[in-house]
Structure prediction request, 181 residues.
Amino acid sequence: YLLISDTANRANWMHGQITAYSGTSLTVNVLATSGSGTIASWDISGAMPYVPATAAEIRAGTATNVAITPAGLIAALADVTIADAATITPNMSTFINAVITLGGNRTLANPTVASSDVGKSGRIKIIQDGTGSRTLAFGSNWLFDGGIDFILTTTAGGVDYLYYDIESTSRIVLSTKKGVA
Prediction:
């Protein structure tokens, strides 16, 4: 693998793998680029393979030998929809930020938490459906300030936020923001 960069402007570069060479000619399969233009002078150096992490790999926190790019991080932070069900059991490795639209009275069961999730924080956006007045009960691993479960906004279309901090595989500390318009 090579990193080929503009000697005058390091923001212009290509990263790729050599596929052929002959004499003074070099053929490179370009895997990533930055910048543009006609470049008069290049620096060529060996480089590790550049493989950007996917949003799912960033959310799970288990990928190795990949690069976290700004675009990949932004994609990982995007809301992931959690399916509505009578009992909702989120898998914390599949999102950082999530959204649930409640279609009835629900239970947010104890989530699936991998050891690689410990230390992760984010938020879950809870939306009341068009009927509103939906309730949400919580599994014992969801811990609220003062030990009192959160009572949702009941307005149809109402929005509440649960901000979480995963302290262990069985302890998720929550803070809340209620009635966001």
User: Anything to note?
Assistant: The chain has a mean pLDDT of 92. The first helix runs from residue 55 to 60.
